[in-house]
């Protein structure tokens, strides 16, 4: 039975982790209240609800609090049964979780570090190389699947988990003056990204491009300065 308890989401407008939760809620047709969080001046509500990591997203469903975006996605899928996003087959479900974790740890983190690294071209190239190699593996999965999305002909868990590739990654490339998602090298990824961005549940829930570029220009300089300072120390 579909839950009727109130749903709230604490998020941050520029966070791919917060936005992926909104994509899932929109796909499911779940009504929710969005609460914008200032991650640089964290609210008492956030600190109370997530005292361990003190991060967004935080999903509130009635009196239940769910943390961490991948865990939230699974909770959403198990709570609202319409439009399933996780594969029903146990093996396919395990593989979706594997590739979601792989993309986050190998592609997202290396791309982020490549964007933020300043003054050390060798280190930047190392991160960039690892990001490109990771995307190559993801490209092969798309080619092997021969479908519009990772989940087949409709958006699924892995598409949502890897949604950052379609929008955030090109922004980071622009900010970091680097190339990862070369469409001539990764045509399957480019086609998937276009399909994903144009989906009704996604296209109206993407941060304004000019605003997010400015934000990450500022953020990358801040993180880069911290990295450089730690290196000297």
From TrEMBL:
User: In the UniProt record, does the keyword Ribosomal protein occur?
Assistant: no
Domain of life, per lineage: Eukaryota
The subcellular localization recorded is: Cytoplasm, Cytosol
Which coarse location class applies to the principal site listed for this UniProt protein? cytoplasm
Q: Which residues form the GST C-terminal domain?
A: 89-216
* Recorded catalytic activity of this chain's protein: RX + glutathione = an S-substituted glutathione + a halide anion + H(+)
Stretches assigned to the GST N-terminal domain: 5-84
Query: In its keyword annotation, does this UniProt entry include Zinc-finger?
Result: no
Q: Which GO terms describe its cellular component?
A: cytosol
The record's similarity note reads: Belongs to the GST superfamily. HSP26 family.
- Protein name in UniProt: Glutathione S-transferase
């Amino acid at each position: 039975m579909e839950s009727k308890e109130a749903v709230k989401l604490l998020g941050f407008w520029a966070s791919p982790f917060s936005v992926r939760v909104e994509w899932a809620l929109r796909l499911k047709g779940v009504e929710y209240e969005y609460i914008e969080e200032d991650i640089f001046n964290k609210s008492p509500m956030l600190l109370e609800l997530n005292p361990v990591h003190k991060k967004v997203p935080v999903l509130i469903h009635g009196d239940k609090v769910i943390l961490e975006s991948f865990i939230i996605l699974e909770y959403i899928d198990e709570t609202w049964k319409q439009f399933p996003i996780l594969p029903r087959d146990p093996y396919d479900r395990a593989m979706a979780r594997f590739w979601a974790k792989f993309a986050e740890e190998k592609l997202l983190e290396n791309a982020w570090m490549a964007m933020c690294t300043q003054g050390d071209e060798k280190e930047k190239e190392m991160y960039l190389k690892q990001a490109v190699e990771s995307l190559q593996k993801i490209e092969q999965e798309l080619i092997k699947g021969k479908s519009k999305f990772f989940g087949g002909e409709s958006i699924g868990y892995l598409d949502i988990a890897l949604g950052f590739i379609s929008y955030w990654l090109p922004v980071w490339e622009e900010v970091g003056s680097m190339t990862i998602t070369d469409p001539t090298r990764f045509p399957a990824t480019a086609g998937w990204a276009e399909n994903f961005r144009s989906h009704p549940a996604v296209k109206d829930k993407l941060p304004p491009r000019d605003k997010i570029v400015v934000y990450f220009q500022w953020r990358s300089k801040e993180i880069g300065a911290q990295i450089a300072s730690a290196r000297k120390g």
